[in-house]
Write a structure and sequence with these properties.
It contains twelve helices and nine strands. By secondary structure, the chain is an alpha/beta fold. β6, α8 and β7 form a beta-alpha-beta unit.
Length: about 325
Amino acid sequence: AYPASADNWLGMLGMHGTYEANMAMNKADLVVCLGARFDDRITGRLDAFSPNSKKIHVDIDRSSINKTIRVDLPVVGDVGRVMEQIIAVLKGRRFTKPDYAEWWSRIQGWRATNCLDYPASKKEIMPQDAIRKLWEATHKRDPIITTEVGQHQMWAAQHFDFDTPNKWLTSGGLGTMGYGLPAAIGAQLGNPDALVIDIAGEASIQMNIQELGTATQYRLPVKIFILNNEYMGMVRQWQELTYESRYSNSYSDSLPDFVKLAESYDWTGIRIEEPTDLEAGIQKMLDTDGPVIVDCRVAKLANCFPMIPSGAAHTEMLLTEADVKGTMDDQAKALV
């Protein structure tokens, strides 16, 4: 809906959204919500969500309005037509744009946290770096990106920038593991000349992995880019941060050899294990005409930040591992 390269783009809201986006939402005096749902992955604790704002909610589905957040002005209708009407009214009233300099100054202060920074490593591939390198190699081709569900999904949302609409297919907060590959196949069928990449995790891709045969059957040059950390990464992250590292069924030592699996379906398989091989491996994927699986071995214990813990307000964000330790220390002190 809005290009990520534009100055006013603040990034994703919510549980793994940017600090500036969540803080701007919290401090806003007016929120206009267009076709979104105020779902729990966005709001955090409801009583603390954008508490001082007037809220206008435009949605074609009447049942989605006032479902979780009470709004001041509900508008039921098609977003495109409603916006045309709102703009016509504003022009008719000769609306004068206020001076937002102070507001943008506050936003720039929040941006200065650089909340999407991640630790560098020469020994292992950082998953965030893999996504950034994938974006750098492909964004000029305006690719269609699909995702499965988990950490890789959030890292893709954070680090793969989109400038045009209809290029980002993901199940969002629904968490539909296995969504990415069928979505990529459908997107490739509808856009035969497009570059279509499914950014996947090694667990989610196995939910519908038999659809490799569908892509082969229809000669579709779909690319699958797996961030392989040998864990159901988001499950492991929550077990580490919320349940004091009491891990249960989040690690797998019985993964398939994705390169051999690719070859068994007449795909090309590529394995990337070293940071120095990352860019060359991505380029090899792009230079291959047919379908490709890339098994990119990333840091096993990397966590996805920023993060809003369960039950917290959308301003109570954990920005780094250090914040997690501080939060746990505070909780321990409270128990003494």
